[in-house]
Specification:
There is one protein chain. This protein has about 90 residues and is an alpha+beta fold. It has one domain (about 5-80). The chain has helices at about 5-20, 65-80, and strands at about 25-30, 40-45, 50-55. A three-stranded antiparallel β-sheet has the order 1-2-3. Helix 1 (about 5-20) crosses helix 2 (about 65-80). The radius of gyration is 13 Å and the shape is globular. The termini are far apart.
């Protein structure tokens, strides 16, 4: 999956479904050599850092929908364990 495809099909929809406007302070998405070529996301959300291999190169037959759901689930867990969203369940948004 290309960086542009990962951005539009995976990352942006997952971010919109979990995070509120204004919570993201910085956003970095890039290619990585990890796991045979991956797309890595780094976020600063209210001063807390989230990092995830959004698309993992060594798992070639995973659909964008599956990657999006994986990222969304990881973001829900991140928020629930963060200082700014401690205990919040953003799974049902």
């Amino acid at each position: 999956m290309t960086l542009l495809e990962a951005t539009t099909a995976v990352v942006l929809p997952a971010l919109r479904s979990v995070l509120d406007d204004g919570e993201i302070r910085s956003f970095e998405l890039g290619l990585s050599d990890e796991l045979e070529g991956s797309v890595v996301l780094r976020l600063d959300v209210q001063g807390e850092i989230f990092r995830d291999l959004v698309v993992q190169g060594h798992v070639p037959h995973t659909t964008p929908e599956e990657w999006r759901e994986r990222l969304r689930s990881n973001l829900v867990d991140f928020v629930a364990e963060s200082r700014f969203g401690w205990g919040e369940n953003r799974d049902q948004r």
